[in-house]
Amino acid sequence: MRLNTLQLSKIATAVALVSVMAACQNKDNGAAPASKKTESSSVDNKDQIVYVNSDSLLTKYQYFKDLKDKLDTKSKAAQADMGAKTQAFQREVAQYQQQQNTLPADQRAATEQRLQRKQQELQAYQQNAGSALQNEQATEQEKLYDKVADYLKTYAKTKGYKMVLTYSKGNSAILFADETLDITSEVIVGLNEAYKADKK
User: Fold this and answer.
1) pLDDT tens-place string over residues 55-83
2) 112 or 45, which is more confident?
3) For the chain, which domains are there?
4) Pick from 16, 42, 44, 54: most CB atoms within 10 A?
């Protein structure tokens, strides 16, 4: 069995930053995104649609990095545990195979039944361990999504943005976006500050 937590990065990229829409309290009737950009590199609030680069966010958001390290450690520990149990079982089978010709028929039958039960128990243990790890991943991914989504909702309302889109290279519905609409750096700073405060 290979318990796979390396999928976390791909899954979290898709799940953690699904487009987060935040209705702004601005009463302007259907203001369209501004067609002209100022010389400033900051986003003009009139643009009201901005985006976050999810690739950058996931590589620089400390909570995600800590989460990935934690799940990788658990996965390696589970694999090592499973490997040790499998090797012990294989040694027991090999030992029986060496002795089977010298054993009475009833003892051979009893040993084979015991080994078969052990194999079934080992398979069940493997499945349970894999399911437990997948469930933990799903729970942690949901927490990650909630943290990012909650932060972006508050952030968008504060800044007056109508929508926050997510951009990921090679996996995005956005074919082009002006770089001045990219709020990734500011969002990463805010998320990391919030995470530091939570840890204290």
Assistant:
1) 999 899 999 999 999 999 999 999 999 99
2) 112
3) 8-12+46-199 (3.30.910.20)
4) 54
CB 161 within 8 A of CB 95: no
Q: Between 46 and 7, where is the model more confident?
A: 46
List beta partners, residue 182: 51
**pTM given for the model:** 0.67
Q: Which residues contact 100 (CB under 8 A, 6 or more apart)?
A: 108, 111
Q: Classify strands 49-53 and 163-167 as parallel, antiparallel or unpaired.
A: parallel
Nearest to 141 by CA among 51, 6, 9: 9
CA distances in angstroms from 94 to 12, 90, 91, 99, listed in the order given: 43, 6, 5, 9
**Rounded to whole angstroms, how far apart are CA atoms 62 and 140?**
14
**Closest-CA residue to 60 (of 157, 198, 147, 190):** 190
Instruction: Give the Cα separation of 130 and 134 in Å (integer).
Output: 6
d(CA 106, CA 48): 80
